[in-house]
Design a protein that fits this description.
By secondary structure, the protein is an alpha+beta fold. Helix content is 14%, strand content 32%. The strands form three sheets. The chain has a 16-stranded mixed beta sheet that branches. Strands 3-4 form a two-stranded antiparallel ribbon. Strands 13-14 form a two-stranded antiparallel sheet.
Length: 438
């Protein structure tokens, strides 16, 4: 019996190291998708309604990431605590995970994966002894239910702000569209859009509506199913009236003069193989999750014709969303660029364990100093627009990218809509860019 146990443990260890598929128990699925079913996380002195500020932040240091802790400590922002609630993803996504997880395995090198059709590829708890645990978490993010099968931010307001004066230097109004070509679990066709001759996994399409000087600037990103293939990206500049392909390095340039790179979108918008991923641990942390309709919203700007109001901003320079935060289970993952010429030395991502969104990311410059910190507010779909109710999508609903070195920020106010009619497949083409541009 002793020898049998040793053999089983050895087999399991070898399988983990090789990234091989293992049979998945139903309890693993439940633990992955419903982490608060039995017990909600707690911390001494913390309850819904607590306001964390400069005076009391020290007692909550263990549950706030270092960057945001420093902001509170400086008096830049206060953090309001809400009740921890479950953000249940769509049952079809959970079922796809259950049906396929024992088929998924990593390849010999980062960026290689096989057996995945749909759902969360690696629902097992990450193992600190598994050298590829960080990579598996990155795949869970890539193949996550972020925006579901397709959705649109329609419209999307970015404001460029001076953190010292609070002056809004520029406001840009966009529409953003997202479409998964494969791994589809809810919107027809399932599980993939065909034909798909370019073998795409995902498309992102962006169109600038205002102001006039950049109106009709368009961005199109094609991400291949094969992670080892580079993204194809195109930019249409309205004043030039032509489409040009983006060079690889341009995804790490400031996008339209903002504090964001294209690679920053959604927390990380690149290939798994472009980074070395390291799992740093699991912890309970305060994260920006809330019910949009329960917030004190912005009454002054961007009020929609249907009465929808965007999230308000305040704090130092108006750079921080006025939202509530929940104590949630989080995976800390470090990504280090493979390319030595990358402008960052690393990012530290705080991935939400239930939704696999990335609501907090801290970026470090090439010297290792903190440079930028990204907050993406997550709104519950059942307390948002009526069309989003029951979608099972954790709605990106506000963002703040703070450049701590330049004392500058870019903020985002959203109207996220889970509606396939807004993002048809033909929209994600160079031909559409040209037709729209002309």
């Amino acid at each position: 019996m002793h020898k049998k146990n040793i053999f089983r443990l050895t087999t399991l260890a070898l399988a983990l190291a090789a990234g091989q598929a293992m049979a998945i128990d139903e309890s693993v699925i439940k633990n992955s998708f419903y982490p608060y079913a039995k017990e909600k996380p707690s911390h001494a002195g913390l309850s819904a309604g607590t306001v964390i500020n400069k005076a009391n932040v020290a007692q909550f240091k263990d549950i706030i990431d270092p960057a945001f802790y420093s902001f509170i400590e400086k008096g830049w922002v206060e953090l309001k605590v809400g009740e921890t609630t479950s953000f249940d993803l769509h049952p079809n996504y959970v079922k796809a995970t259950q049906d396929g997880a024992d088929q998924v395995k990593l390849g010999a090198k980062p960026g290689e994966i096989s057996g995945w059709v749909a759902g969360r590829p690696f629902p097992q708890e990450p193992d600190a002894n598994d050298p590829r645990a960080g990579e598996k978490l990155a795949w869970n993010y890539k193949y996550g239910y972020n925006w579901g099968d397709s959705a649109a931010i329609y419209p999307f307001y970015w404001k460029y702000r001076d953190m010292n004066s609070g002056k809004v230097e520029r406001t840009i109004k966009f529409n953003f569209h997202f479409l998964n070509f494969t791994g589809r679990v809810n919107q027809e066709p399932k599980p993939a859009i065909t034909p798909n001759p370019s073998e795409l996994f995902r498309g992102i399409y962006v169109n600038v509506l205002e102001p006039h000087d950049v109106r009709n600037t368009q961005l199109l990103i094609h991400r291949a199913q094969d992670d080892l293939k580079r993204d194809n990206s195109w930019l249409y500049l309205g004043f030039q009236r032509r489409v040009r392909r983006l060079a690889t390095g341009q995804v790490t340039d400031a996008f339209l003069g903002s504090d964001l790179m294209i690679e920053d979108f959604e927390g990380y918008n690149g290939r798994i193989s472009d980074m070395k991923w390291t799992y740093k641990g699991t912890r309970f942390m305060l994260m920006p999750f809330y019910n949009h309709n329960a917030l004190t919203l912005d009454n002054d700007t961007h009020k929609d014709s249907d009465g929808y109001k965007v999230v308000a901003f305040g704090g130092q320079g108006g750079c921080f969303p006025d939202i509530t935060w929940q104590l949630r289970k989080v995976y800390e993952v470090e990504s280090v660029p493979v390319d030595g010429s990358h402008p960052l030395s690393k990012r530290v991502h705080y991935m939400d364990a239930q939704t696999f969104t990335v609501p907090r990311t801290v970026s470090y410059d090439r010297k290792g100093a903190m440079w930028k910190t990204f907050t993406i507010g997550q709104a519950h779909p059942d307390h948002h627009l009526p069309v989003n109710k029951g979608s099972g999508v954790s709605i990106d609903d506000s963002f703040s990218m703070v450049d701590v070195q330049a004392m500058h920020c870019t903020t985002g106010q959203f109207k996220g809509i889970v509606d396939p009619k807004l993002s048809p497949p033909e929209m994600f083409s160079v031909q559409h860019m040209r037709a729209t541009g002309n």
